Each structure stands twice: as C-alpha cells, then as structure tokens.
Amino acid sequence: MSQRTLHSLFKPTSVAIIGASNSEKRAGNVLMKNLLSSGFSGPIMPVTPKYRAVMGVLAYPNIEALPIKPDLAVICTRGSRVPAIVETLAQFGCKVAIIMASGMAQEVNDDGVSLLDLAMQHAKRYGMRILGPNSLGILLPPLGLNASLAHASALPGKIAFVSQSAAICTTVLDWANNKGIGFSSFISLGDGTDINFDELLDYLGRDSHTSAIMLYIDSVNEKRHFLSAARAASRNKPILVIKSGRSAEGVRAAKQHTGGVGGNDAVYEAAFRRAGMLRVNDLIELFAAVESLAHSNPLQGERLGIISNGGGPAVLAVDELILRGGKLAELSQDTLAKLDAVLPTTWSKQNPVDIIGDANASRYANALTILMDSEELDAILVLHSPSALGESVEIADALVKVIHAHPKKNRLNILTNWSGEDSAYQARKRFTKGGISTYRTPEGAVGAFMHMVEYRRNQKLLQEVPQSIPDNIPTDSQTARKLLQAAQAKGKAVLETHEASPILRAYGLNTIDTWFVKDADEAVAIANQAGYPLALKVQSPNILHKSDVHGVMLNLTSEEDIRHAANAITQRVHQANPEAIIEGMIVQKMALTAGAQEIRVAVISDPVFGPAICLGEGGSEWDPTKDAAVALPPLNMALARYMVIQALKTHKLKDRHLPLGLDMNALCVMLTQISHIIIDCPEIASLDLNPVLAAGENITLLDVNIRLHDANTDNPSRLAIMPYPKELEEFAELKNGLKVMLRPILPEDEPKHLAFDNSLSDEDRYKRYFGVRSKMTHEEMAVLTQIDYAREMAFIATAKGPDGDDITLGAVRASIDPDNTEAEFAMAVRGDHQGIGLGKLLLEKLIKYYQANDTPVLTGFTMFENRNMASLAKSLGFKVTFDMEEHLIKMHMDLKSNSPVNS
C-alpha cells in the first residue's frame, strides 16, 4: 500500500482515456463527455487507433504515442484487452489506472491465469495502482474532474463517498444533486482488488477538504488494515456506513456482486461500532445522514429543542426522540417568560414549543431567536405543517435569515422539517440553498439528529478509561496453552466441561465440579464421594445439544436415581440417534440456581473478522449472531461494559432483577478474561459456555464446549484488532540500581500517564511540546493511551512508588505512516529520573521494535535547547542535523543499514 501513489488518483494533472470513442453509448464516449464537460484543467488524452480525434480532441493511436506520462488512465475497453493495456501503461510510467470492465476474475488466458490476476501482476511489477475492476470511475468536484460513467457530475462539497456498488453511486449522486449537496470526492471502488477501503480511509481521514466520509460496503477483505484505518479516521471526522448483506440471502448476493468473503452481519456491526463508525440500515437513512453531515456543526451536547405550528408533528418528533434514546431540552423559566412575551397565550408553555397553527414568519423567527439565545439547547428542530395562510416560503426565508445572523450559527445545529409535497417543496429548496438541513418528515429529522448523537456517544464510549481487572484474578496462558496443545497431540477436536475446567481456571473462571465416568457404577462411586444432589449428562461426540435428545437428568439425590438416570439417558439417546457413540457420562454437582440468572457466552470464528465474542440468553435454537450482542476481542473492562450495555439495550440480554442476578462488574471481568483466553490461545477455534450461572459477584460456567483447531493450524493474523503485545514487556535496571518495567502503554494507564505528564517541569514540557501548553484533557490522554498497536507504539517505564503503586517515569512513542516507510518518535523522562540511563533504554527499545517491524526509517525532531536529546540520539546511531531556519534538530536513522541495538 502507498499513500504516495494515491496522490495521482486524487490530484491528477493529466488523464488518458484508453478506448476513447466517438460512438454514442460506448463507455469511452461517455467518459470523454464527462471529462470535457466537468471543467478539468489538465490535458485530456484520448487513446484509440480508430479516430484522429475524439469529440474534437486530438487522439493518439497508442499509449506509447502519448506526449506525457498520464497521472491517471481510465481503461474503457473489454476485459480481454486490459492485461496488455495495464502492462503498457505501467511500463510507460502511469501511476494509477481505473478499470471499468467486469468479469475479469472469471475469464482466463491460455495458461489458466485469470485476466484480473494477470493485470494485477503487471501493475505490481511496475508499481502502478489499480482502481476496480468493475468501477464506475471517480469524481473529484474540487478539481472539476469527472472520470466516470455517471449520468451527472457531482457538486463540490466536504463529504467523501466511497462505494462498492456503481448503482448506489448513481442513486446517491442523483439525490444529492437534487438536494444541492456536494462532495469532496466520489469514488466507485468496484471489486477493490488493489485500492481498497483501508487506503482510501487513510487518505480521506487526512484530507483537509473532507469533513465526513460515507461508505457503501458489500464486503471487507483486509480486516486489520480496514479497522485500523477506520479507527484513525473516525477520531477526526464522522464515518457513516451502509452495509449490504444483513440476511443470509443478502450475503450470498453481495458475494456474487464483488467476490468478497461473506461474513456475518452482526460481526460487521460489532466491527463498525468498535472502529467508531456509525451504521445506517437503508438508503433513506443514508440520505438523511448525508443531509445532516452536509450542514451540521460538531455536536456540543444532546439537548434538542422543538418548534412547531402543530401538536401532532411535534408529538411524533418527541416519540421518535425518546424511543431512540434522545434527550428533550428543559427550558428555564427565563426562556419560557421570553417566549410568553412574543407568542399567543395559548402556546404550549413547554418544549416542544407549539406556536399555534396560524403562526406567521415573525412568530417563528422570534421563537427561534429566543431558543438560539438560550444556553439550554444543543440543537433545534423547526417543524412546519401546511397552513391556510400559505406563508411556507416566507417563514423559511425568515428562519434562514435568523440563523445566518445569529452568533451561535457555528455552534448550534438547526434542523428543519417542512411536511407536505407541493406546498413545502419551495421552502425546503430555500433551506437547502441556505445550507440548513431539511427533511420531509419529523421522524426523518429526529433520526438524522440521533445519528449525530450516536456518533458523539460512540466516540465518548470508546475513549472511556477502563478499570483494571482485580489483581487476584489469574491470567496463566502458559498452563492453558500446555493443556490445549496436549489435547491437540492426542487428536482431540472437542473439550467438554471436565476437560476444559483447568484451562478456564487458569484465567480465574469457575466451572461447577464435574467428573467424567464410563458407566453407572463409576457415576455412583463419584456421587457417594461428592455428595448429592447431582446432575447426569450424556457424553457423545455426535450430540451437540444434550437437552435435544433428553440426555440430561437433574436433581438426582440417591444411588438408585443415578442408576435409573444412566439407563434412561442411554435408551433415549439411542432412540433419538441410533448411530450416536456414547463415550460415557458427565457427573456434575447441582448448582444453586435460586435467585440467579442463566446466560450464554460463545466465541465464534467469523470468516471475515475472525474470533468474535457473543453474549445473550441462550437456548437450543440460539443463533449467536442473531440472539446475542457481539464484540471483537481484545476486550478490556470498559469495552466489556459497553458490550453488556448493548446486550441489555437490544434486549439480547434481559436483567430479570433476581436477588442474585446480573452484576455488571462480574460480567465484565468474565468477558475480559474470555477475551484474554482467545487472544492467548490460538489453539481454540470456538467456545460455548451454556449455561453460565450469574449469581451476583459469583459467575459459574455450568457447561463448556471448546472446539480446537488442528495442531498444524497457524494463523498469526486471526484477530481483526491487534492485541496488547505482552511479549514486549521486560525488566531493566537503571544506573542507580532502580528496577523498572519497560512495556507498551495500555488504556488503563491514562490516570498515571496524566500524572506523569503533569510531573514534567515547565522546561521539559516546553521541549516536549515545542512550546507552552496547558494540562492535557481526557480526550487528548485517550489518544495517547488507547493506541492501535498495528499503527503506533508507545513504551513506558514504570517503577514501584513508596505506596507500592506503579509510577510512570518515562515514555517514548512513535507512529508510522500507513505505508510503514517511516516512524516519527517523541520522548519524555521525569526530571528527577534524568541522567540515569532511562531515556537510552526507552529509545533503544523503540529502535529494536521498529527494526523487527521492518520499518525503514526512524526520525524525530527536538528543539535547539534540547541538546541532551540530540546527544543521546547521536550516541545510538542517529544522523543529527540542524535546521537553522526552523530552529529544530532533526534525528534520522536508517533502520535497515543500522545494526540492531543491543539490550
């Protein structure tokens, strides 16, 4: 991947059209029309041996005859000609090509190689990038570039749209032009064989001309790259996504459309949520979201005020707001008094502000001004229903004037709904022209507002500081993996409760006392030793759900009960499944279920995103991706809490308010530890805990089923999100004998990292931040501590303080560009721990890390005043230069030629 090569896609200075044509309705003809009519200022070079000129533009017989190397080439020919064209273009020096042909993956040459693979081989050999195939093209309104087969051009704006579907592209474009909404870029991804969502998100996330990003997705290929790019971009600007394939049939259709892997929709939903993106379910929601993104300000809060000339629409708006979890603003007595002074005595006297059906422009303008003046609202929705007075357009004009003249116009969000068709159309056009969001229904307007609210909430939730798991809960990966690998060596594919118990105990998870017996005699012996009451369950590799074949009997209180149950279970199983192999029986102590609640937890393996954790209520017909909340590992306590909240909010999990029922902290600890097991133990293919007994702080796993991978399976990138790299932890000793821990930073480190940052002297802070700066905010600290280990690294040095708690003494961090070509570092050490080798240890660790990561270059900048930093860097092999104009010292190391640093 290379962001540098994308520059030619987004900033081309010349375009070649391969297969340009004068024949109507040929792709090469449509493309030439669009390019010539869009106002692109660079050379447009048609390539075709058929014509001397195409649409009046001098044509070139072949690529080699072009007078300059085109930045961008659009290939409009049939698929069979594309591989040779790509090879010639790449050899000629073209940087990016758009392929419009479809079906290339299905066509093969005489050697059995698909045309798509052949074209990609040529492109990669010369470093040329490909958009498509099956792409509609690209529209870049700020450049006046329409290199597409779209039926219309796009207006300039600040929204970027990327779609795998050409039909969705043209639909959105048609709608946006009607609404006067513009785009910074409009990209048809096609099959996404080369240039894909992750690279485009990286580019658009940094693009100053783009304030929001919208995606239409059929499927995702590079899960880790996609989530890393989405997470980075969504921190700076909202990303809305519409995903096809919400049903099994839809998944199959999407797979046929783009050839991607069909993943589970609930797991996609979890991935979008984890990356901070906001999902919309259909085109109507998407259009409403575009409307709000085009005209909205960053939301400062969630309090909504409503003005209406009728009670019914206002009630509909309030219902939608409350049902979606929104907040209706409470108006102060002062604000109510001001409204009283300008409205009829019969107005509603509350929010919503019903200003009576015959309200005129003056009454609307006065009410809006008063609400905008108040400090009690973060957004205002203005509703209007058709009135006999016919002042619809006059009211709209008055409101546009008020909004644009008000000093809060860039802080408050104003949304409008002019209901009706003919009577409301012109008014909605006035709002659109005035850059104010307008919607056809009250519910649509509230839905758009709630999209903004949900985005704000998601960002805040993802920035929460997680609490640490209690110290007394073990995480013994060595024991767990040893047991799992021993099972694999014996050829076992499934571990039941009695075999899984010691693995789960290594992570502090409790299973009920369980024994495996071969027959009724052994069961009686165990029962007499363990005590009653007991449960007896069949053990068979052919039976997934024991209760389906009546293979479970509970509350056995005597030897006679045990023998009778064993015989009865055997008979029932053979009747239900004569071929079933009965290996023996499982004997379990009966759990004390009074006042407790049964839940179910599973870990599935999604074909796109890998392991996913599911939480719900269970049952034999349970579908974990329909009946459970889903989250991607790794989880910490904050993310686990977010998962439990989602499960309760969507009613996948119900708090039945039992005396010993759900305890949030205990549930979060269990989910976090399950996440640790999945991360630490790649031997596990899936995990099913059914049921789990939640009794307040005590959580007991009653039945466990662990399915194992084959012993030879090795998939280092199985996780969609790179987990905390525990293997990078190490101890070191400073010159003064102090023992310190060097390790990657964690989200849980935020409070101590803030204390560390505050402990720096004014001089050190000046050197670190290249100037005077105030105390770090929580949001800034979240960025520093909640890092994406696939994109950046921060090592901290900690030591035990006088009270036994860890204190952060120093930190070094670096982030890499998406191409992994260069990492830029920064470092700080507490003033009272400088000069004893701590800075050297931290920087050496960072150098070793990026050498192992195959990053070519490590750079850093410091101020002229920080000569100690420059001296340290020079001693470790950095090339140090002085920029006299910027008053900076630059430190540069070629990591490939520099020998690895010794510990």
Automatic annotation (TrEMBL):
Ranges where the ATP-grasp domain occurs: 501-733
Stored Pfam families: Acetyltransf_3 (PF13302), ATP-grasp_5 (PF13549), CoA_binding_2 (PF13380), Succ_CoA_lig (PF13607)
Domain N-acetyltransferase: 740-896
Entry-linked InterPro entries: Acyl-CoA_Synth/Transferase (IPR051538), Acyl_CoA_acyltransferase (IPR016181), ATP-grasp (IPR011761), ATP_grasp_subdomain_1 (IPR013815), CoA-bd (IPR003781), GNAT_dom (IPR000182), NAD(P)-bd_dom_sf (IPR036291), Succ_CoA_lig_flav_dom (IPR032875)
SMART domains documented for this protein: CoA_binding (SM00881)
PROSITE patterns in alphabetical order: ATP_GRASP, GNAT
Keywords: ATP-binding, Ligase, Nucleotide-binding
Record Gene3D superfamilies: 3.40.630.30, ATP-grasp fold, A domain, ATP-grasp fold, B domain, NAD(P)-binding Rossmann-like Domain, Succinyl-CoA synthetase domains
SUPFAM superfamilies per record: Acyl-CoA N-acyltransferases (Nat), Glutathione synthetase ATP-binding domain-like, NAD(P)-binding Rossmann-fold domains, Succinyl-CoA synthetase domains
GO molecular function, one term: ligase activity
Official protein name in the record: Acetate--CoA ligase family protein
Gene source species: Shewanella cutis
